[in-house]
Amino acid sequence: MLKxxxxxxxxxxxxxxxxxxxxxxxxxxxxxxxxxxxxxxxxVKFKFSTFHDQxxxxxxxxxxxxxxxxxxxxxxxxxxxxxxxxxxxxIDDIGFVFTDETGLNLIYNIFIYSPLSKKxxxxxxxxxxxDKFRILNPKFNTTDKSLTVSYKSxxxxxxxxxxxxxxxxxxxxxxx
Length: 176
Fold this sequence. Notes:
By secondary structure, the protein is mostly beta strands. It is 0% helix and 53% strand.
C-alpha cells in the first residue's frame, strides 16, 4: 500500500495493465465511501466508480476523452473491472461487471480494443432493442470463438449464441 497526500493507493499490476484503487486514509477505519478506481490498459485510462454512479471516463494518450454511462448497478452491489481477451484476437479488452439485485445475473459492459485506432469500442448485442450495451452472464468459448449470453427471466433461463464478425461486431447465430 502506498500513501500520497493522505490518500492510500493500492496498485495491482498484471502483464498488460495497472489497476489503481484510491481511497481516503479515513476510509480504512470507516465505511468505504470514496470508490473512484483507475485502470490503465494499453496506455488508456479508465476511471469508474465501484458503487455510487455509472459514469465511466476513458482518457486516451492523444488527449481524447470519452464519457460513457455504464449499466446502473444496485446500490449494494459493487462494480469491478475484468481484463480479458473477450473477442479472441489475442489482445486484452476490458469489461465492467456487477451482479444484479437477484444475485443470479452478471451484467457486463464490454469494450473491445482496436489496435488500428488504439481506441476501445463498446460491444453491442445486434438483435435486442433494449439493453444493447448490457451483456448478461457471458460465456466465451475459445474453441469455436463464440459468445453465449444467458439470463434468468421468471422461472426459466434463455440463452443466445453469437460470433465475432468484422469491425468488432457480434453476429447472432441462434437461440440455444
